[in-house]
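Supplementary notes for students who missed Thursday's class. We covered one full example, reproduced here. Read the sequence, then the structure, then the short commentary at the end.
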Amino acid sequence: EGIIDGVSFPGGTEKDFPLMLGSGAFIPGFEDQLVGVKLEEPTEVHVTFPEGYHSKDLIGKEATFKCLIHKIEKKETPELDDDFAMDVSEFDTLEEYKEDIRKNLTQQKEATARRKKGDDVVRKIVENSQMDIPEPMVEAQQGQLKDDFAARIQAQGMSIEQYLVFGKMTMEDLDGVMHDRALENIQSRLVLEKIVETENIQPSQEEIDEEIRKSAEMYKLEVDKLKE
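Structure (token representation):
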């Protein structure tokens, strides 16, 4: 619980927050004061919000955080050997597992490069186009992006509030990013739809099947299952 001038301040309180020492997730000096604190032993952390902090209202203010540590964990990295490969994959040796990872990474990087090339072309077309996009359309897309983002974050065991703390952002910052991305998505979609219409682009069934096969191989799924 964060307190300034004897009063809890908005965004300063969090429960069951997973904090990794050394991550720099909180302001300087916060994590250092937790080293050596015992489990379930109330402690106080005293810090001053630094210049450049994302919430301008807090810059330069002294704060006290009442903290209680419920659990301490240590990250342990297993040995990279054949036993490890058999535990985490269908391969019998570490070398086979590495080769499979190398192959998948190569495919991903090639796909990323193709997407970037296409995105760059579309972005250039957008820059040289005139579009009158209603704000409600952008806001609807923005809301969908935000919901999808929240779902992905929660699937990783983190709330939006925790993400904002780690990212040193405010909700207004996140909304701004989502609004810009929503506008870009709509502009790109309109450009691509016009290109498809103008060039009369129609993928063949063989091309569709090939893309499905590539995706199935990348995500290690059966082709028929992916088609469903």
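Commentary. The mean pLDDT is 90. The two ends are 49 Å apart (CA to CA). If anything here is unclear, bring it to office hours.
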